[in-house]
Automatic annotation (TrEMBL):
Gene3D superfamilies reported for this sequence: Aldehyde Dehydrogenase, Chain A, domain 1, Aldehyde Dehydrogenase, Chain A, domain 2
Entry similarity comment: Belongs to the aldehyde dehydrogenase family.
UniProt keyword Chaperone, yes or no: no
Active site, UniProt feature: E270
InterPro entries hit by this protein: Ald_DH/histidinol_DH, Ald_DH_C, Ald_DH_CS_CYS, Ald_DH_CS_GLU, Ald_DH_N, Aldehyde_DH_dom
Domain of life: Eukaryota
Name of the protein: Aldehyde dehydrogenase 1
Key words of the record: NAD, Oxidoreductase
GO MF annotations, alphabetized: aldehyde dehydrogenase [NAD(P)+] activity
Tagged with keyword Oxidoreductase: yes
Aldehyde dehydrogenase domain: residues covered: 32-489
Length: 499
């Protein structure tokens, strides 16, 4: 499938490479070069080879994208359409994405090292489900009638906030694009999207499909580039009304500071996690082992809610440890385009080296390495599924296939250990006791708690963090709140008998 596209090309030796069609910035409905003419490399993590050269946005390009978004918001059709009309266009957009599922899954497979078959059955279908969910919500944005005292009547309006800056990460390029863009479109906003520099290709393809679906020019703009240039320009821009970001806690701090120093734009942050998975004595051990393996090794551990801290009650601990090692060793690491692979490569060399450094740090700190801990191939960024025990503290988000297994005695101890982190994004509980499940789920400080399951996402279930995992919610109708303003309208009634 390798070959030249209409404005880019892709090549990686020895592996299947999808045709790469779009590598330029997408501004005001057109693919354009960066003002500077600069490009940057996006690499194939299967080999480390250059996949494509992508136009590199910086402040000048962000200014153009924001101007296009502002003009489309102030003078264009999108915010002035009925919700029903916006919903119809969004559904056409979803139809087009569905029609290109194989191609889009291959783009993310080559650009991010994601499993091709899961991209086809999970990532892309989940994205279009999200888009359709908000298409259905577009005509259901309502205000309230107020019981205003005295000689007045009152009501509220919910209006689009304006130009939304959206900065998405590299671990789920497709799902994150639609997680943020879908509610913004439904609300009537226009958007400037900066995809991660590691994985810009699918976002540019989505911009093309949006135009085909009838999304007006200027409503969706995509500006690939680096965080310290393009991302910083979005967060500091005086004509961007809100920013939605998913990424590290460290960058989240910078975004809040930039938003405050500019125009006090609204900010929504979904940040890091160090999620606990708590397994009680009454659990089915085989089920719990498989669940814990999925919770940390799925998507090579590059998941913000990965169950990286596994707490097992002492009665089943030894059996669980033995079976977990066997399960990890049976988890096949290989080319994500191979349907027999369970795990592909880390997204890039930097992340690959970061994970390996964390593994060395764990060994130096006295933790016992039971399995894994090494590169899994001579070429590319593959790492073996890794399990540590005798871990005294597990606080840092590794964002890789590294499980820390720890023992506990009582429910109280499990709750205390689970909450012993600065993060609060998600948690898992495995037990047959409804009482234990209810008690722990109400006590753990996390935005999502899964009981006898993991990664059970749904467009209707709000998702976000406590503590330093951020604030604001994605998914559900609550996600539209960050793209809407509430306006109160109070009218005097001179003919009222109370006048």
């Amino acid at each position: 499938m390798a070959g030249n596209g209409c404005n880019g090309n892709g090549k990686a030796a020895g592996v299947v490479v999808p045709e790469i069609k779009y590598t330029k910035l997408f501004i005001n409905g057109e693919f354009v070069d960066a003002v500077s003419g600069k490009t940057f490399e996006t690499r194939d993590p299967r080999t480390g080879d250059v996949l494509a050269h992508v136009a590199e946005a910086d402040k000048a390009d962000v200014d153009l994208a924001v101007k296009a978004a502002r003009d489309a918001f102030e003078h264009g059709k999108w915010p002035r359409m009925s919700g029903y009309e916006r919903g119809r266009i969004m559904n056409r957009f979803a139809d087009l994405v569905d029609a290109h599922t194989d191609e889009l899954a291959a783009l993310d497979g080559a650009d991010a090292g994601k499993l091709l078959h899961l991209g086809k059955v999970i990532d892309v279908p989940s994205a279009t489900q999200m888009l359709r969910y908000y298409a259905g919500a577009a005509d259901k944005v309502h205000g309230e009638t107020l019981r205003v005292s005295g000689k007045y009547q009152g009501y509220t309006l919910k209006e689009p906030v304006g130009v939304a800056g959206i900065i998405i990460p590299w671990n789920f390029p497709t799902m994150m694009f639609f997680l943020k863009v879908s509610p913004a479109l439904a609300a009537g906003c226009t958007v400037v999207v900066k995809p991660a520099e590691q994985t810009p290709l699918s976002a540019l393809f989505y911009a093309h499909l949006a135009k085909m679906a009838g999304v007006p020019d200027g409503v969706i703009n995509v500006v690939p580039g680096f965080g310290h240039t393009a991302g910083a320009a979005i967060t500091a821009h005086m004509d961007v009304d809100s920013v939605a970001f998913t990424g590290s806690t460290e960058v989240g701090r910078l975004i809040m500071e930039s938003a405050a120093r500019s125009n006090l734009k609204a900010v929504s942050l979904e940040l890091g996690g160090k999620s606990p998975l708590i397994i009680f004595d009454d659990a089915d051990v085989d089920m719990a082992v498989n669940l814990s393996r999925l919770a940390i090794f799925f998507n090579k551990g590059e998941v913000c809610v990965a169950g990286s801290r596994v707490y097992v009650q002492e009665g089943i601990y030894d059996e669980f440890v033995k079976k977990s090692v066997e399960a990890a060793q049976s988890w096949k690491v290989g080319d994500p385009f191979d349907v027999t692979s369970n795990m592909g490569p880390q997204v890039d060399k930097e992340q690959f080296e970061k994970v390996l450094k964390y593994i060395e740090h764990g060994k130096n700190e006295g933790a016992t390495l039971l399995t894994g801990g090494k590169p899994a191939a001579d070429k590319g960024y593959y790492i073996e599924p890794t399990i540590f025990v005798d871990v005294t503290i597990a606080q840092e988000e590794i964002f890789g296939p590294v499980m820390s297994l720890m023992k506990f005695k009582t429910v109280e101890e499990a709750i205390e250990k689970a909450n012993c982190t600065r993060y609060g994004l998600a948690a898992g509980i495995v037990t047959k006791s409804l009482g234990v499940a209810n008690r722990v789920s109400r006590s753990v400080r996390a935005g999502t708690v899964w009981v006898n399951c993991y990664f059970a996402f749904d467009p209707d279930a709000p998702f976000g963090g406590y503590k330093m995992s951020g604030f604001g919610r994605d998914q559900g109708l609550a996600a539209m709140d960050k793209y809407l303003q509430v306006k109160s309208v109070i009218t005097a009634l001179p003919d009222s008998p109370w006048y």
